Amino acid sequence: MPLTTRELEGARRAEHAGLPLSITPYYLSLCDKDDPRCPIRRQCVPDAREGVLADGDLDDPLGEVRHEVAPHLIQRYPDRALLLATDRCSVYCRFCTRSRMVGDGGGARSLEALAPALSYLAAHPEVRDVIVSGGDPLTLSTERLVRLLSALRAVPSVETIRLATRVPVTLPMRVTAELVRALRPLHPLWIMTHFNHPKELTSLAKSACIRFVDGGFPVMNQTVLLAGVNDDSAVLETLFRSLVQTRVRPYYLLQADPVRGTSHLRTPLQRGIDIMADLQGRVTGIALPKLICDTPGGLGKVPLLRDYVVSREAGRTVLRTFRGEEVEYLDPPVPIGV
């Protein structure tokens, strides 16, 4: 693929000083080789603007280092924790939240390296939900992945396990019948995918998702809002409707994290609010994700909503519908003597 001057500079910089360049042949085949504005190409080909440091940019935007409770284990919420099983991905996305560590050469974490994290989970039964991420856990061999998930399943207080993976998007042939059979005994296991553009939802990608769904795995999708990729209501409507047809539930539309060197891929907060307001009412509810901003510093996720409340007084609220109409809602009377 011929690179533009800006892409070539970005690729050279990435090889020496930043998140390395890595693209599967499959995902590369989705790129338009003649158009640098291609939404797939913008996600995976470095750009010289990655060297620009903008106000608000952070190496660790979600404060994961500060919230590390054991090696490779991060806890930002009372009832869930994030386990970083590897630093490898099949494709290194240019907006990666963990660009500080992804691709640093460590590879898959051994069970010995993860033993302190497993001990922490066993000692903290309030943690009921574990998200296995990295890197991408589906880059592990099936045998290694099963050993890790079995160790998590052996912790009695861990009720659900989530696999955060972009493999159905970037390497869908990894999702084999063998993989599904190997993971099925570890239910309840949720698959958290990451489709950002309708162009990624190829027949191979759909087959990978359907294979998981048919195996009994709920599949949820988290889309990151990216400038020049999907910051358009028509694009996202097509993506969300297509996901639902594939039996994948759109879960989050995420404001892109303020990772160092990604300002050219981020949108203003209001852009996402406007897009969701445009989709509200004309796209079925099961195809509408929550618009979320994961606050800088690791203080948690905040839903972003258009204000549909026009005015409020005692017992009376005026609401605005998705069509812009105003309607009055009256509270029930307070029961006498209660």
Structural summary, described in words:
This protein is of the alpha/beta class and 338 residues long. It contains ten helices and 13 strands. It has helices spanning 5-17, 25-29, 39-44, 111-123, 142-153, 167-170, 177-183, 203-214, 233-245, 269-279, and strands at 68-70, 73-77, 80-84, 129-133, 160-164, 189-193, 219-225, 249-255, 290-294, 301-303, 309-313, 316-320, 326-330. The chain has a ten-stranded mixed beta sheet. Strands 11-12-13 form a three-stranded antiparallel beta sheet, with no helix packed on it. It is globular and about 65 Å long. It starts with a helix and ends in an 8-residue tail after the last strand. The relative contact order is 0.11.
Descriptive key words:
single chain; 338 residues; alpha/beta; ten-stranded mixed beta sheet; three-stranded antiparallel beta sheet; 28% helix
Please write out the topology.
Elements: H1 5-17, H2 25-29, H3 39-44, E1 68-70, E2 73-77, E3 80-84, H4 111-123, E4 129-133, H5 142-153, E5 160-164, H6 167-170, H7 177-183, E6 189-193, H8 203-214, E7 219-225, H9 233-245, E8 249-255, H10 269-279, E9 290-294, E10 301-303, E11 309-313, E12 316-320, E13 326-330
Parallel strand pairs: 3-4, 4-5, 5-6, 6-7, 7-8, 8-9
Antiparallel strand pairs: 1-2, 2-3, 9-10, 11-12, 12-13
Helix pairs in contact: 5-7
